[in-house]
Amino acid sequence: MDNATVRLALPGDEDLIDAFLAQHADSSLFLRSFLARGGLVDEGKPLQGTYAIAVMGGQVAGVALHTWNGIIYLQAPECAAALVRLAVETTGRPLIGLGGPCSQVEIAHVGLGAPAVQRRSPEDLFALNLSDLIPPAPLGSCTLSCRRAEERDLDLLRDWRFGYEVECTGFPDEDATRAFAAQAIEGHVARGEAFLLEVDGTPASLCTHNARVRDHVQIGGVWTPLDLRGRGYARRVVAGALRVAEQEGVVRAVLFTENPAARRSYEALGFRQVGEFGVIVLAT
């Protein structure tokens, strides 16, 4: 886009940025959520980051965010490479991964010099209007309950989140990943975003609202321990988290996955594919 201006976002740009992202709502939940909750200030705190934007004709035409924890999120049909370069150069932070529409993530990766990749995941993006949620069938005589996770659950959930980051995100099995995972789940619990399924009073599955803005929510961090898989627990913790969101005014949910079993579970709840979401984890 030759006539676009690429620059850092400034206070006062919030409405312009959100108006653009709302046009791509299903694939922009991370960006919209962080903008709403962290604003355009970047002091290295959770939910904050540095935003680079492309502006054309007085309207935003692309956004890249380099977050407090080293991830780039994109919604940049044009200027993806220039936007990520500006964001990364400005923050000076390490870059550990990129997320956004698949083609944009690939362009951004090349624009950064194609650094070595640990994992490349072209994932399916799913959406569901919560009025169309298909409730899971009862599980025999088991007593199931889904509740918000609490601080007392953290000893268990730190280990679960570490397992999730290694298996599902592709981060290396090392102390840095364990610290990243602990910070992530501690933040979700503190903000009331983590949900725990209990079966006969025993924790069995976890998920999070990993992004939320007004009436939209994104589900992520879905994790069931290996010895409890294949019993429908992940489907039920997601359904429970969605019911809570609906009670709080949410009308639409999105999530993304490359796992065939997970895909079947989400489709059974009524989710339908609406696009793709690319994730690249860079080698350390």
Summarize the structure.
It contains eight helices and twelve strands. It has 284 residues and is of the alpha+beta class. The model has no long low-confidence stretch (mean pLDDT 95).
Number of helices: 8
CATH class of the largest domain: Alpha Beta
Low-confidence stretches: none
N to C succession of SSEs: EHHEEEHEHEEHHEEEHEHE
* Net shape: globular
Please, what is the CATH homologous superfamily of the largest domain?
Answer: Gcn5-related N-acetyltransferase (GNAT)
Note the main sheet. 12 strands, mixed
Arithmetic mean of pLDDT: 95
Radius of gyration: 19 Å
Query: How many strands appear in the DSSP assignment?
Result: 12
Strand order of the largest sheet: 1-2-3-4-5-12-6-11-10-9-8-7
Helical content band: 25-40%
What amount of the residues lies in strands? 25-35%
Span between termini: 33 Å
Keywords:
about 280 residues; Aminopeptidase; 2 domains; twelve-stranded mixed beta sheet; globular
